[in-house]
Amino acid sequence: MHVSFSTSELTRLDETTWEIPRTGEMKVPARVFADPELLAAIAGDRSLEQLVNVATLPGVVEAALAMPDIHQGYGFPVGGVAATALPDGVVSPGGVGYDINCGVRLLVLPLTDAELGGRRESLVHELSRAIPSGAGKHGPLGLSPRELDEVLVAGPSALLERGLCHEEDLERTESSGCLPGADPAMVSERAHLRGAGQLGTLGAGNHFIELQRVGELFDAAAARAYGLSEGGLTVLIHSGSRGLGHQVCTDYVRRMDSIGDRYGIVLPDRQLACAPASSPEGQAYLAAMAAAANFAFANRQAMAAAVRGAVSRVLGRRAADETRQVYDVAHNVAKVEQHGGREVLVHRKGATRAFPAGSADIPSVYRPVGQPVFIPGSMGTASFVLVGDDGSMQRSFGTTCHGAGRALSRTAAKRRIAGSDLRRQLEARGIVVRCPSNQGLAEEAPLAYKDVERVVEVVERAGLARRVARLLPIGVVKG
Amino acid sequence: MYRFVEHTAELELELEAPTEAALFEEAFRVLAELTSGDAQGAAVHHELELEGEDHALLLVDWLHELLFLAEVEELVPETVVSLELAGGGLRATVGGRRGHPRHLVKAVTLTGLQLRLEGGIWHARLVLDV
């Protein structure tokens, strides 16, 4: 296998699509959505090598795909998409990743930034107090083993009786917040132990909560459907399945690593360990993955409830009651879908489903315009709301990018900027920062990421998703 | 001895030691540094027994065991009291304090996993998910 790729080795198919032709053990070509500048950045790490490795998976169809925010990960690159033909194409836990159903949820508040005025800092402070951050923090919800299993099976709807979830929230969550087939019995005792205390917690790393002002609108009809208006306020929550999801992935990567011979599977990277989706091991993983995904939906639901609580304390009960959920989307998951007239298992690792108008798989309220997609920028830069476009179904298994994508390692980012300097820069721009660690702040500095404006421009030009609104950060809470 | 190799998103780690057991201890020290945190609680010891013929995977399991103890038992790891490696597995006692470890590392991946003896020195390579 190649260790690194020169951009000259890729064939340009059109304005935004490059291809690495099928060679060697590749079963399909590898395709990258990018522009020349992003492609040059992408070729700077091992993400294309990892994408080529994905193209060797048994049962993979059409092409291994990379979104413009692709960067080097482990096994799959982050920003990688692969569909395997069912029933016997493989499922790869590493193709979903450790943070199963890491994703984002957007809430819209019933007031403008101007109306919030001087209460901005109070609101951000209250958000930071309401939601435990840091990787191992214990959450506000003490779940018994039975209650945890209910969450694993049902997702956020298990929180309805606790008053932490509105019916409308469920309607406005990908897959209604519940992947079918979840089986707590397929989730190890260790995963249960890790997850038991973590529901409603943010975690560390690149997870965050951001208070935003809606800036420019690009698509008035979609913005109206999503409840977004210029000057309005939104809260974006980025988190996942916490230790429970990490343990599920750990357990099943190890299990599948040990059974490759049984299925005659030879892989270029052990982290791609996989099994036929129809096999007992494949079925067990899919049941455990669904449970972890449901836990992640519920985790963001519990944090949304905490956001409403913070809004209530700072802005009043009515503002909290009128805080609406726009949508909640998964970034790391494998889903059974129909594409090209066949049933496939779409692995999205650091990528977002982006179904267009008319899709039966999106909430009826959004069917006339298309599915909302949220693309967080880096800390201190804009984020974007997009809408799924028709091209996604033709070109990317209904998928678009999930963020700006890292360009620099954490070490390199810390060499370039001190966390304390970044904190001052953000605060000088009026952004309220609540992050206990300067080091953690520096690791997520804007200079560590690709230009999100360029990334969303590429997915728009590629026909995968269209811009709806730009969201400007005014407060950041980080673990 | 250890060093971090440039990786866009995760932590890629190279380790060297004169013996295989010393390499496992060095891996422990790296993880202890990465998880160091508030350790005001009681001193604790944990005895670990892991099985496995493939010692590269055993190294991964060793670190996962420590991550699990940090997250669930709130162990801030400090020392390897004893460590024995045999063909079929590992037996160790680790010490530390209860507290609030940093949970920077989420998992130990199998990407690029290596453990080898070369020129009389043990080498390992790991990618940690952070």
Characteristic terms for this protein:
heterodimer; A: 479 residues; alpha+beta; tRNA-splicing ligase RtcB; eight-stranded mixed beta sheet; 16 helices; 19 strands; 25% strand; globular; B: 130 residues; Archease, Possible Chaperone, Chain: A, domain 1; five-stranded antiparallel beta sheet; 2 helices; 8 strands; 26% helix
Topology at a glance:
The complex is a heterodimer of chains A (479) and B (130).
Chain A: E1 11-14, E2 17-20, E3 30-33, H1 36-42, H2 47-54, E4 64-74, E5 76-85, E6 90-91, E7 103-112, H3 113-116, H4 120-130, H5 145-154, H6 167-171, H7 189-196, E8 208-217, H8 220-226, E9 232-239, H9 242-257, E10 275-276, H10 280-315, H11 317-321, E11 324-330, E12 332-339, E13 342-349, E14 352-353, E15 372-375, E16 383-388, H12 390-395, E17 399-400, H13 410-416, H14 419-428, E18 432-434, H15 438-443, H16 452-461, E19 465-478
Parallel strand pairs in A: 3-4, 18-19
Antiparallel strand pairs in A: 1-2, 2-3, 4-5, 5-13, 6-10, 7-9, 7-11, 8-9, 8-19, 12-13, 14-17, 15-16, 16-19
Helix pairs in contact in A: 4-10, 5-10, 7-9, 9-10
Chain B: E1 2-5, E2 11-17, H1 20-35, E3 43-51, H2 55-72, E4 75-86, E5 89-98, E6 107-108, E7 114-118, E8 121-129
Antiparallel strand pairs in B: 1-2, 2-8, 3-5, 4-5, 6-8, 7-8
